[in-house]
Amino acid sequence: MLIRLLTNVADVFEIFGQTKLAERCWRKIVMVRPDAENLTTAGFICFKNGNSENAEQFFLEALDKCPTYYQALFNLGFLRQNENLHHEAIGFFSQAIAINEKCDVAYYGRAQSFLQNGLIDKAIVDLKRTIEIQPFAPHAYYKLAHAYAKTNNLEKSKQIIQRLLTFEPQVGNQLKKELKLET
Questions:
Q1: Spatial separation of the C-alpha atoms in residues 104 and 82, rounded to whole Å
Q2: Residue 57 and residue 177: Cα distance in Å, rounded?
Q3: For the whole prediction, is pTM greater than 0.85?
Q4: Longest dimension (CA), the chain
Q5: How far is CA 131 from CA 98, 111, 141, 164, in A?
Q6: Three-state DSSP class for 153?
Q7: End-to-end alpha-carbon separation of the chain, Å?
Q8: Rounded to whole angstroms, how far apart are CA atoms 102 and 105?
Q9: Which of 59, 100, 111, 121 is 20 to 30 A off residue 160, Cα-Cα?
């Protein structure tokens, strides 16, 4: 009962942008029930508050409790990505994918790190996989169109823009302008 109450209070604080107060709630929650899900959520809130060191500790503790908790691995990847440690991020995202091959955000995150490391072909594969899993993910289409443009495959970029225009016209039109393409 206490956990449910604290979780609801933390959610309300987060909804209203009071993430410091939400973090305090999550710290209490993990003292009472330190399972992988709660530890990962506490880590995520710490990360949102700029507290990367505690975020990492919570994510690692979540993995100690449940080594196959892919959400903690994904969040570690995201943390490393935000520290510009893309090689490490790729490793964490890859581990998350190995556990849950339908984790679209891990494919997308790994693609972002591949792009930062200049591995465009690998990024394209992961962005395409992101879209297979989540066909209405406009950010994946956006990045994929840019990746194809970097490889001078403008025809593929145009095809992606055409698809994007069917469900996210604002993003599709933005891409047309950025890539200077007419579809």
A1: 18
A2: 43
A3: yes
A4: 58
A5: 18, 12, 7, 11
A6: coil
A7: 56
A8: 9
A9: 100
The Cα–Cα gap between 16 and 143 comes to 31
Tens-level pLDDT at each residue, the chain (183 residues): 778 888 988 989 989 999 999 999 999 999 999 999 999 999 999 999 999 999 999 999 999 999 999 999 999 999 999 999 999 999 999 999 999 999 999 999 999 999 999 999 999 999 999 999 999 989 999 999 999 999 999 999 999 999 999 999 999 999 999 999 876
Give the orientation angle of helix 120-133 with respect to helix 138-150, to 10 degrees. Answer: 150
Give the integer Cα–Cα distance in Å for 70 and 52.
Answer: 19
Distance CA 111, CA 26 (A): 31
Q: What is the dihedral of CA 160, 152, 143, 76, to 10 degrees?
A: 140
Rounded CA separation 87/98 (Å): 17
Quote the CA–CA distance of 61 and 90 in Å, as a whole number.
Answer: 20
